[in-house]
């Protein structure tokens, strides 16, 4: 089935661009590929030499956004959009991309806020010349959605196209981009192969040519735009690849439905506590919901493709699968709400909240579609269209001052500090300096220059220290509120207690501090501990699980202190079984395979290569 769609708009007989296969369209696409390469090379040269536009981040970042995205949009639109509509569309996107680029550069430019002596990279006081990763990724996703919707609307001659047109155009565009990316990668593989062959006979002219940015940048953009053109003039190839891709992916929906459904049923038996202990429940749950949304659409497609033979099976799978995102999103929202209530908003939590908002739209719409017996799941189509518009609005809000995650997170953390929810000793000044963008640094300057005594003197000192920081990775994790092992560590079996010396020991001063479970050095973490006896004739030892690293075994040194004896390298499933076996007190301890050696009082320790071990439950038992 061809992906070419009828255009109900009056044709322009003088517009030779309105044909994917026209000679002029092909030449224009090739020219755009070369022009994009020349522009990107000019910007790269300026960035590398720190001259011209590279000295003005408010101009350089939007210029890079325009050079990187507009030519690809133009190549995709030629042959599908009339000349007038294409120019209007490109102009609108140019305004939006320029605005987002200027704002992104402004929020990252700290040169006017930090001392000139600051050095480093990124948010170190020097102007940031490249778009942020958030801007780049959201721009790619947003432009893909917007371009597909624009092409579908123009093909139908309507502002809001039919769902079939949206489906056809979106999947066609996705396959084209994947094909162009693959073609470009293979193109470079051919060039590198040629370079390797010539190097065998001591000719390195091709290698030197490939190292030249004036060559490799335009050649790459030319290959990409040419691949887009080739896939556009052969729609039957794109349609065949799309059909194969959707057919393969559609058979994953029954598997995903069974796995995720079993997970939700398992929660009824295990409760929510194991879920919260992972500290990443929100991201995993939203990821599972997103996977379901994708697989549901690989089966639903345009809503009219299911044959009589496959109708019953896949319709039943769709109805069950459409009910699963709702509980996943509810659990994710609840998990996120707990974290926000306890620790406030951060950049990642604001991003997770926006993802949860979009996921909730899909979950509600799909649940209504599954529960409605009359519309044959047609609500999936309307939900997809509404959610697409919502995603574009959310992206624009996140990339603008309206809902900038850094601005929201900084304001909330400062509010918690002002009202006493967060004590100054626990406040994350490092976050303001390196993750709060311009807003965080401005607040640090305000805190460091406070005159009214609204905060303790320690706040002013810590703010000044954070402002002087130059390396985002050089972070002092020392928690001024000493962790209370009696509260942070849950002892199993119930009723047992940790040794007094273990509780009283200051683990933050330990030489192996960075290898210890987080609950032993930080006041905001919790662990589970089991009293074990590896040597039946020896003393009890403490086996600690913190959920983020391998189980750690602590032993009494005999000289008045406890020390880390080692860690057990195992997979997560094995760790779960290890906990259960330790709870029963039936761990089967084995002697080491190698032994240490003592030479004239010098202790030589045998270092065993660390590997993650997969285990069966029986291996932990006697």
Kindly describe this structure:
The chain is mainly alpha-helical and 622 residues long. The protein has helices at residues 23-49, 57-77, 83-108, 133-156, 163-200, 205-210, 213-232, 235-250, 252-270, 273-277, 281-300, 308-323, 325-343, 347-371, 379-398, 405-419, 429-434, 437-448, 457-467, 485-488, 500-504, 572-584, and strands at residues 489-492, 527-532, 541-545, 552-556, 562-567, 597-599, 602-604. The strands form 2 sheets. Strands 1-2-3-4-5 form a 5-stranded mixed β-sheet. A two-stranded antiparallel ribbon has the order 6-7. The termini are far apart.
Structural class: mainly alpha
Rg over CA atoms, rounded to whole Å, is 30 Å
Classify the beta-strand content into a percent band. 5-15%
Bin the helical content: 55-70%
List the helices and strands and how they pair.
Layout: H1 23-49, H2 57-77, H3 83-108, H4 133-156, H5 163-200, H6 205-210, H7 213-232, H8 235-250, H9 252-270, H10 273-277, H11 281-300, H12 308-323, H13 325-343, H14 347-371, H15 379-398, H16 405-419, H17 429-434, H18 437-448, H19 457-467, H20 485-488, E1 489-492, H21 500-504, E2 527-532, E3 541-545, E4 552-556, E5 562-567, H22 572-584, E6 597-599, E7 602-604
Parallel strand pairs: 1-2
Antiparallel strand pairs: 2-3, 3-4, 4-5, 6-7
Helix pairs in contact: 1-2, 1-7, 2-3, 2-4, 3-4, 4-5, 4-15, 5-7, 5-8, 8-11, 9-11, 9-12, 11-12, 11-13, 11-14, 12-14, 13-14, 14-15, 14-16, 16-18, 18-19
